[in-house]
Amino acid sequence: MQGLETKNLKRKKTPFYFYDIDLLRKTLSAAQAEAAKYGFIVHYALKANANERILSEVHSYGFGADCVSGNEVLTAVASGFNPSSVVLAGVGKSDDEIRIALEKDIFCFNCESLQELQVINEIALSMGKTARVALRINPNVDAHTHHYITTGINISKFGIAEGDLAEVMAEIKKLPAVTFVGLHFHVGSQITDLNVFSKLCKAINHIQATYFSGNGFTPQFINVGGGLGVDYEDPFSNPIPPFAQYFDIFHRSLEVRPGQAVHFELGRSLVANSGALISKVLYTKKSSDRNFLILDAGMTELIRPALYQAHHQIQNVSRTMSASDQKYDVVGPICESSDCFGTDIPLPLSQRGDLVAIHSAGAYGEVMSSQYNLRTKVKSYYSDTMGEKIPSTPLVTEQ
Ligand code: LLP
What we know:
The structure is a single chain. The chain is of the alpha/beta class. The protein is built from eleven helices and 17 strands. α7 (195-211) runs parallel beside α8. Ligand LLP binds at residues 45, 47-48, 66, 89, 149, 151, 186, 189-190, 225-228, 265-269, 304, 308, 364.
């Protein structure tokens, strides 16, 4: 299997992102079909990947948009998402961002504190507008994921604590330019233990029954956030996340009132496995006890391993595995020891110039890339326009 080596991509300057549009479409279509079974509404979390081409694909499947900045709101709208399908979250929305969202007349703000509600009210009043708001509640449910992407436990900066709800609701009644429309939750990302979502449903049921019954606060919808994880260990066998089980949990466990809608904010699960970071081996280097494969991509192009100790499958697409396999520490060129994609990775005996794919990089990859060390911004290519595909199964060992 020569993979990329024999075709067009070989001629492209590395590193670059490569998106498998066919897999992306299959993933989007599976998610949309499973959600539609129950009438669930899914907003795509732009923070996972705001690449123009990816956004146009996502939009074409009928998803709404979940934004966390004014620029994301503007980008979503410019990409064709109807403002009435756009939500704006974020623990620190600036006055400008609030203004942008009000100007665009988005579906709703997910509000995270009493003070934020007061500021939104003031700005809306000054603009002669009314803001629809959902309260983001911190349900104290542990997502059992990396602590950097755990967002719904008591020590998290996100959401309104259950103990503060009564005060917040009393205050909302006094805010003329704010209309309460729903409840919002998001407990974390890369959640692979689906029991977490059952626990989230239980917590939501408790909150709804305790604080939102017979007091004039009728949530028109419950937004349960995102967080569904992908299989980074074996994306080849499981390229599409378990959307059927995921939505079924909410269908079975969430107590939905008549007329109440259920919204989701999925990011990673929709795009992660469709993207790979393609890089070239610059150098191979041996130290007394390590074999280094030094790539031309680094933490500037994909920061997840450095920041979250994340695992991504690494593949030398120029060669087949053989008896002379080596274990490599696969590292980037950046002057930081954390610039390492993986240690002791079994790979074919590799040489300068080999192409290396780092898989499942479609979410929180390109969008988190930086120009640290004044690196050039990474480019992207697409399987349909290039007429190529990344090998979808790991290369087998040559006998
Ligand atoms: N809604 C809210 C309020 C969020 O904060 C997030 C993600 C999402 C939805 C989408 O979550 P997803 O379905 O993608 O799990 N950079 C990290 C992930 C950060 C997630 C931040 N919030 C990573 O590379 O793992």
